[in-house]
Design a protein that fits this description.
273 residues; mainly alpha; two-stranded antiparallel sheet; 9 helices; 1% strand
Length: 273
């Protein structure tokens, strides 16, 4: 039974594989067309695509699509994320392994686009550049308006910076303790280098000049070598020979006399007596 069920599932997958391929190719084609329309977006084109003065590469339809994507998502530049997500989904369908690429890349890219659009909206609105859906899109304009209305400029910046740091920490798995240690080491090295470059007081300079060897002293701007009066080396006196004690001398004499008696012939001692 289990083998039959597995065979049926494999057959169903084989039957549905052409459908996945067709859907993947369709998504890739749609992504390329939307990207071309957004890249050739012109604010002077009529939003409804009517009129002879349409400059979009995809004609009136491209002008309408570009107007919708640019104004109602993340702005002119960040709206290219929409065709990118469609292309990732098409690649997942062609690979037939689920939505791995879309989930791994699409989620982080979408969060980054929302943060970037919000930051750009706060910059433009807070600094008096005016509200422009072309630059920030509806997402950036709406989030910037909410943040500035409830938190003000300072609160909006603090919140956006904190969210950006959290995003970078989670995405890149940054260890801030290691970065702090590196920064502290760099600061200590900089302080040490600046301390070495700091000019010394005049008293220390005079002391250092007095300590210098005579070979590097200068007179009248010219380098001269000071000639030292070479004193002849003192003659080494021979070390005084210490005379042995009288007891040692007497012992040596007795030893010599005993050796002389032993070395003499037998009749020499009796005749001497």
């Amino acid at each position: 039974m289990a083998k039959r069920k597995a065979g049926r599932r494999s057959r169903r997958n084989e039957r549905s594989s052409p459908v996945r391929d067709v859907a993947g190719i369709a998504l890739l084609t749609l992504a390329v067309m939307i990207a071309a329309a957004v890249l050739s977006f012109n604010p002077a084109d009529p939003p409804n695509g009517s009129g002879p003065a349409v400059t979009n590469r995809l004609g009136p339809a491209g002008a309408v699509v570009a107007d919708l994507v640019v104004h109602y998502t993340f702005g002119r530049i960040l709206s290219l994320l929409i065709p990118l997500l469609l292309a990732l989904a098409g690649l997942d369908l062609l690979r037939g392994r689920g939505s791995q690429i879309t989930l791994r890349l699409g989620g982080p890219l979408l969060v980054a686009a929302v943060l970037a659009a919000s930051i750009w909206g706060v910059v433009r609105t807070g600094n008096g550049f005016g509200e422009s859906l072309e630059q920030t899109g509806l997402v950036g304009w709406g989030l910037a308006g909410l943040l500035l209305g409830y938190l003000g400029i300072a609160g909006s910046w603090i919140l956006l910076i904190g969210l950006s740091l959290i995003y970078i920490t989670v995405l890149l798995r940054i260890r801030w303790v290691a970065i702090m240690h590196l920064a502290a080491g760099a600061g200590r090295g900089l302080v040490t280098g600046l301390g070495r470059l700091k000019p010394r007081p005049a008293s220390l300079k005079r002391t250092a000049r007095a300590v210098k060897p005579p070979e590097v002293l200068k007179r009248g701007g010219k380098k001269e070598r000071a000639v030292r009066d070479e004193e002849p080396p003192e003659e080494e006196k021979p070390a005084a020979v210490k005379e042995p004690a009288p007891e040692i001398l007497a012992g040596r004499k007795r030893t010599r006399a005993a050796h002389a008696v032993e070395a003499a012939p037998p009749g020499f001692a009796s005749s001497r007596r």
